[in-house]
Structures are given as C-alpha cells and as structure tokens.
Specification:
The chain is of the alpha+beta class. Helix content is about 30%, strand content about 35%.
Length: about 150
C-alpha cells in the first residue's frame, strides 16, 4: 500500500475527529429559545435515559438530544420522541459538575427518568425556572440553582 495514501486517510480522519469535537463542544451553548410552534427548545449536549436508581446506566443520545417545553407538556428524546404532560412529572432535580449541568426529570407513571445535559449552569437555571413555573416539583438542589441570581 502506498504510504502517501495512508497518510492522506489518517490526516482526513484527524480533521473529521477535530471537527466533531468542536461541534459537540459548542452544542448546548446558550439558553432556551422559543420555537415557531410556540414551544421552547432547550439546547442539550446530550440526553440520557435510565431506570430510577441506576444512575446514567441506560440509553444515551449525544447526536440529536431533545427537550421541548410547551404550554401543556414537554417533549423529550433519548431514543424516541416522547410527550408528557406537566402533571406527569413527579420531580425535577439538577446535577452539576465538571462539564455537566443537567436537569433530571422523573415521571409519575414510570420508573424511567430523563437526564438532559444543558452544558451550562445559567441554561440549567432557566430550564428549572420554566419547569417550576409550570408547577413541576423541584428538589432542594434544583430550587437552589433556580433561585440563584443570574450571572
């Protein structure tokens, strides 16, 4: 095999990997934004789904994660798009740490929970306030973040 061909393919692979890293690093920047259909899109870096008590062991989606907030419901996607009324949300928690500022939603009718990594504490706080204002119960940790002054 020609050495120049191997070098060319390797160089191309490095460029693709570097571009993907930048795209995923920038995903989730900024806060929620109103959509033309009236929903509010929450920019996510990744979405996770698992059974309660299993941490992040379960499904994940860092290709096309979704969290939309409407007047009467939310829509989210880990593997498939699902719609839940606000009354179906049992609790809202928040998890922060290195590179992670995630909203955690648990539901009244299932053992499933949705985790959406917003990528930033300001965006997380805004999402928590929106969910609180719709009547979703926040944990103490989520309430502290939601009520913290912006900045």
């Amino acid at each position: 095999m020609d050495v120049s061909l191997v070098v060319s393919v390797a160089s191309f692979a490095v460029v693709v990997i570097v571009a993907a890293v930048f795209v995923f690093a920038l995903r989730g920047q900024g806060g929620p934004a109103r959509q033309t259909d009236g929903g509010i899109r929450v920019p996510l870096r990744a979405a996770y789904g698992s059974r309660k008590g299993f941490g992040l062991l379960g499904s994940h989606n860092n290709f096309n994660p979704l969290l939309l907030l409407y007047d009467d419901r939310i829509e989210y996607r880990v593997l498939k798009r699902t719609s839940v009324a606000y009354s179906g949300i049992a609790g809202v928690d928040a998890v922060t740490g290195w590179g992670r500022a995630a909203v955690v939603l648990s539901f009244t009718d299932s053992n499933f929970r949705f985790v959406g990594n917003t990528g930033g504490r300001a965006a997380l706080a805004e999402v928590l306030r929106l969910l609180r204002d719709k009547g979703s119960p926040l944990t103490d940790a989520a309430r502290v973040i939601a009520e913290a002054p912006a900045g």
